[in-house]
Amino acid sequence: MEKKRGAGRFLTSGYLILVLAFIYLPILYVMVFSFNDSKSMISFEGFSLRWYEAMLENREMLESIKYTVIVALIATGVSTAVGTIAAIGLSKARPLVRSIILEINNLPVLNPDIVTAISLMLLFLSAKIQRSIVTLTIAHITFCIPYVILSVMPKLRQLDDNVAEAAMDLGATPWKALTKVIIPQIYPAIFSGALIAFSMSFDDFVISFFTAGVDVQNISMYVYSMKRFNPSVNALSTLIVVTVTVILVLTNLIPALGERKHKKEDS
Amino acid sequence: MKSFFRMSYPYILWIALFIVAPMLMILLYAVTRSGNGTITFHFTLENFARFLSDPTFLKVLWTSLRIALITTVVCILIGYPAALFIANLPEKRQTLMILLLTLPMWINMLLKTYAWRGILMNFEIESEIKVFIGMVYDFLPYMIIQIHTAIAKLDRELLTAAYDLGANRGKAFLKVTLPLSVPGIISGITLVFLPAVSSFVIPKLLGGGNYVLIGNLIETYFLVAGDWNFGSAISLIMALIIIGSMYLTKKLDTGAEEE
Fold this sequence. Notes:
The complex is a heterodimer. By secondary structure, chain A is mostly helical. Chain A is 81% helix and 0% strand.
C-alpha cells in the first residue's frame, strides 16, 4: 500500500511538472533566445545583448511601449476613480436601478472583445471623430471601469451602512464620510481593481486594434502587425516578464510573506 | 443617503455614451442597408439572410465553434487531473502552484502567442494543430483554476464518509468529487469556450493568413471590405450565439447546484 502511494505521488507530481513545463515553455524559450547571438530560433549560438540593443534602436517599438504605458496609466487612473465612486453611489441606489446598471456594466465583460471593439469603432466613425490616442484611451477606460466595479462592489456590500451614517450623524459631511470612512475600508478592493484594470489595458489587443486609428499603436498591435519574425520581440517579452513578476511579487507575495511572519510571531 | 447615488451620474453618462450607444449602433447597422442618411434608414434583414444562406460563411462559423469546442474539451481533459492533483497537495504547495499558474496570465497574450510562433516554426505541423496548441495554452490555466476552486471547497468529510461506507478510491471519486466539481467545470467552460469562439489573434498568428475563423471574418468586413452593415450582422450573430450558450451554461450551473 505504502509503495503504491509513493508511486502515485510520483506520477501526480510528474504530471503537474509537465503542465507547468507546458505553461512556462514559451516564456523560458523567449527569455533564452533573447540572448542569442543569431537570428535563429532553433540553435543558440552564444550569449549576446544584440537584440536588446536592436530594441533600443527600434523607434517604432519604443513608441509602442510609450503609448501602451501612457494609455494604461490614464485608463487605470480614470477607471479606478470613476468606478469606485460609481460603485459607492450604486450601492445606495434602488435595487432595480442598481441591477439594470450592473447588467449594462457587465456587457463589456461578457461580450466578445471584438464586438465591444467594433461597436466603439462604429461610434467614433459615425460621429466623425478621428481615431487617435484619445479614442484609444476612451475605449480603454470603457472596458476597465467594469472590472473596477466588479472588484469594489462585493466589498461594499460587506460594509456596515451604519458606520457612514454614524459619521454623518456626528457631523461629518458626506464627502468626509466617503474619504474618511468608506474608502479606507474598501482600499484593498480598489487596489486590486486598479491592478486588474492596468493589466487589462496593458495587454489589450483587439479593442485597441479597432479604436486606435493608424497613427498610434500599442505593443500588442506592433507585434501583430510585424511581417517577419523579429528577435527584438524576445528581448521586449523578457523585459515585460521580469517587470510583471517583480510587480506581482511586490504586490502579492510580500503581504502574504508578512502575514506568515505575523502568524509565526503569534504562535 | 440618496445624495450618494448622485455620485454614479458621471459613470451612468459614460456607459450610456460608450456602452449602450455603440451596441445600438451595431444593431442599427446590422438591420439596415448601406447608404444610410442621417434621417433615412433602409431597414432590411438581408445581411442576416446573406450570412445564413452562404455555405462559406456557415463553414467559417462551424469551424470556429468546432475549434472552440475541441479546445474546451482538451482543456478539461488536461486540466481536470491537474486541478485534482493540486487540491491533494499540502496547503502551502497548493498556494504556490496556483501562484505559478496565475503568473503567466498577467503576461501579454500576443507576446506568448508570438513565442509559440517562434517555437512552432521549428516543426512541420499542420496549421490547425498549431492553432489548437496556441488556444489550449492560452486557456488551460483558467480551466485548472476554476476546477481547483470547486474541488478545494469540497467538504473532505464527505470523502471520509464514502470510504467508511465501503467505497474504494475510484468509486468515491465518481460519486463524490466529480459531481461536486461540476460547477467548477462549468465556469471553466464559460471562461474557455466563449472567448475561444471569437478569438482571432491566435488563428492569424499561428494558423497563417488563410486560416479564417469568425473573428477574422468580422475583421475583414470592417477593415478590408468596409462593409459595416454585413460586419455588424456577423458580430450580432456571434454575440447571440455566445450570450445564448452563456445563458445555457448558467442554467446548467444553477441546475447542478440545486441537485
